[in-house]
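Fig. S4 source data, part A: sequence.
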Amino acid sequence: ASATSAPPGVPAPKYSPSGRPKIIFNNRSPSFDEFIQSARASQLEGLSGSVPDGSTAKANVPSYLFPALHAAAQPRQSLGQGRKYFIEVYGCQMNVNDTEVLMAILNEAGYARTHTVEEASVIFLMTCSIRENAEKKIWRRLKHYKSLGESNQSRTAPLVGVLGCMAERLKDKLLDTDKLVDVVCGPDAYRSLPHLLSVAEESMSGVANVLLSADETYADITPVRLHPNQVSVHLSIMRGCNNMCSFCIVPFTRGNERSRPIDSIVQEVEKLNQQGIREIMLLGQNVNSYRDESEYRSYSGVETSPPPQSTDPSQPTIMSRGFKTIYKTKYGGRRFADLMDAVAQVNPEIRIRFTSPHPKDFPDELLHLIRDRPNLCSNLHLPVQSGSNTVLERMRRGYTREAYLDLVKLARETIPGVTLSTDMIVGFCGETEAEFRDTADLMHQVQYDMAYMFAYSMREKTHAHRRYTDDVPEADKARRLTEIIDIFHQHARTRNQALLHQPQLVLVDGYSKKHDCWSGRTDGNHKVFIQS
């Protein structure tokens, strides 16, 4: 077989043009699981590192694949024995949760975590692709670790693995650039990582599994916490995003939406309650579009007859008033409000938060539930992205400025003392000064308690990359960003000062070395420093 053809029974990965192969598994090729199954089948035929003379398999399988097949055929539990991994985490809370899932998978395979690079057999970077600066930081770290490996001749250089969204977006470039990376693993492929590492150790040019899944939620894996003594944890309830906003890379790096069953989430909350956890952040790329479409069961696991109202297969998604979606409407299943009600009842003393939501998925029932359940925190993240109707249309957000402001008004009328945060982008494709002024005006109107503000960064593969030009000068982006940051600080300072001398229930989360005192957060997610 040539270097660009696959043997019978072995999926056709993508090879490097010459020399040892670079193997990439993605949604255009058979899966890595199929590769492992083929490897085990081949091993039974005698392909365990050598092939008997006269074997028909010898003619069918390239010799350079023997080590990879042998590595892929090994049982998971033995793959990491005697090996340690070091991991750096960048990006959002979902990356933190993914890291904790990944650690459980690696531990089960025999790997042990180390906090020092010098002890590591493998170095992982959990990456973010949401903005260009995030990726630039990762490239710098990869070059740093490459130089460390070259400068230390006294030990075998560790494997370097890139995980997360950057792995999904730049798999070829990561493997091809100066041999900086040995393993690339996308967000839906973490179960395969122990075998990927084993294959990479067999002198490959690199191996990647970036297959996006239609159903992977890691619901059966109990995460290993990065910080075991913390009182607040993240819990992933769904993955992926269907919104396809024109500026956003997430649907291309995380795939379509799929949700964990309510049963598995409530069971995990019950375990966390037994461990003394006192705050849980429910996570998802579009968390409040959660929809459990599994069997008609109550969250206690008992059959319900008739099914709960929200499982009616004819019942469409209820969205915020005046909002729409460009994606197909969901029907049936149990909604985010059903999940929130279930987890709130596990222990009324556990605070429940959630991120990151979309404003379209705040129906009245959800706002009323947050009002009525004291342990559902009165802090809503309402990412608006722009205050201009024309920019919102180019962004494909599915709402107008007026509909968004109506939602803000309804939230404040429904939930006493609610605090609001947002995401804001300035300098999106074609943004004029008048459109920016609409954004600045909205910031003045809403007066957010917290805001995450950014200058637009074009991402390849997105709708904006295909349809628009990133034509706002960088100087204008910087000026506009500075202005909305100043507006935010002006109003946040006023809102914070209004809280002085008011009693607040604070969950203490640790000791701040910087401020030399204990710190914690209020129900509204204000950071508080407690002087002793």
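Fig. S4 source data, part B ends here. The first strand starts at residue 22 and ends at 25.
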